[in-house]
Write a structure and sequence with these properties.
Blueprint lengths: L1 H38 L14 H20 L3 H7 L16 H21 L1 H4 L4 H46 L4 H11 L3 H14 L4 H12 L2 H16 L3 H50 L5 H5 L1 H25 L4
Helix pairs in contact: 1-2, 1-4, 2-4, 4-6, 6-7, 6-11, 7-8, 8-9, 9-10, 10-11, 11-13
Amino acid sequence: MKSALLSTFLIPIILICLVLGIIYSILKQMHFTKLEKRFEAFSLQSDKEQIISIFDEMSILFWKTIHKLSFLFEKSQVLTKYAKKYERFIPFEEKERKESIDYIAIKVIIGIVFVLLNIASIFIHKKTNFITLFCSFLVGFFLPDITLMTKFKSKRKQIEEELLKAIIIMNNSFKSGRNIMQAIQIVKTELEGPIADEFKKIYLDITYGLSLEVVFNRFYERVKLEDAKYIASSLTLLSKTGGNIVSVFESIEKSFFDKKKLQNEMKSLTAASVFVFRVLVALPLFFSFIIFILNPTYFNPLFSSGFGILLLLAIVFLYINYILIIRKAMKVKM
């Protein structure tokens, strides 16, 4: 029974980890290649022919395949419309080389890889069906969304923390007599990270002739932050009623500073409650793991009968609802 359990769960997990490791290695090598290209302008180039590494060849082949699939998917209006939501994940430096439809092609390729892994498992489990293959494709297709949303949340958090610095720089620029384009240019030059990337996009939108309220509305649509919405609303009101942009940004700066101060106070007051919540969430998983280590067959009845599976699903459902309810109760809106 124990060997069957291992062959059922352990081998597919190893295969999935192997595929994820290969994808991670390719993405890491692509990142190194991108950094190398950024420093090429500041380095002396040799007259000798440069040798392309195997990772570079794999990266080139991978992106050629992606672009070919993207060219096919662009003919579908449904896929093109679906791909628009991935535009916010494209960094400013990669806008010329990467399009939102490329993410659909990547998701399809990962889905196909998961289907091939499921087909390969026939040699182990001796059985499969269309529903299993379809579910494998869906898992592979939507798995990149988890990674993208995790990176997006981290990026949005960094933007939220750095937005006050950007407003302070812009306000000081206005006080020294600079215009809006010069102020935004100073922000994208002085700051680093996601906030600088977003202000590069803002600067580009303004050079295309868009108004301030439209530009910052697009900024809000990309990051989905209430602070960005507040800036967009203030600039919209300024354009319709008139006024001094310096006084508007002074009001925005004061509002953001007070909010930041209040957030820091709330974090210090709720730190103990957050720690207790995390401990209570981790305890069921910890004790389940300890029980499994001490007695690996203890949970077998949950997987060997229909009632056990229903009970397991009920436990997972209650556990997830417990987490969501407690998080909702602890969340304090500013």
